[in-house]
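Appendix B. Chain record.
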Amino acid sequence: MSDLDELAQSARNRGLKLVRSRVRTPGKRRFGKVGLTDASGKPVLGMDAKGPTASPEEVEDYLRNLGAQDWGASLNVAVLPRKKKRKAAREPANDVEPAPKQPAEPPPSLPKAEPKPKIRDAKPGDAEVLVALIALLEHDVQEKGVRKRIAVLAREGLAPLVATLDKKVVGLCGIHRMVAVHRPQPLGRITILAVAEDARRKGIGRLLVEAAESKLRDDGCAIVEVTSNDRLAKAHTFYRHMGYERTSIRFAKKL
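Structure tokens predicted for this chain:
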């Protein structure tokens, strides 16, 4: 068996076909050239449109390398040798100092929402704070007495109203309801209105007055009166802004 026959057999063992040049004259181009195709005739190595172009040694090296690889014999197609990927050259250690990592900037914080005031009935436990609010109107009262009067008024359905911000009491509005012989319907009255100095200009006074009017209206009152000291000019302006009119002069006498 010639060397080319052995080469052809080696190609067949790998599912390939050895193609030999038809040129028989030594010295002419393609003399002694061979090539490889797969079973369907598709060129694999050393083939162009005119025939084989590879030397037997090139085909032998290719088949030897191919034998070391996994190939799909069941598909009757040779698997080409895989080219190894070159790893990127690593920079020598300690040649370049790594750039320091910049700390990630925290996301901008959203402005904290302003707490909304809430209105509720006063409780005896509010007495300590209410003493300070009542003192803003120059009334000298004791915590024990305020606590007792809150309980009495609550039993009569006339508990004072308080405004809170973040659960802290910052406003007070006292209410009263009375039946007068000269009026066909009960008369409502706002007896005191006070807002902490650091909680003013937030609409808390308005909320308290509106809540008092709503409660007195539900109790059947047709008119709401407000009493205010002559010295409190700003309070008078506030009540006029809320729709109250001066209708009478109030007289008082200590007993």
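Further analysis of this model is presented in Appendix C.
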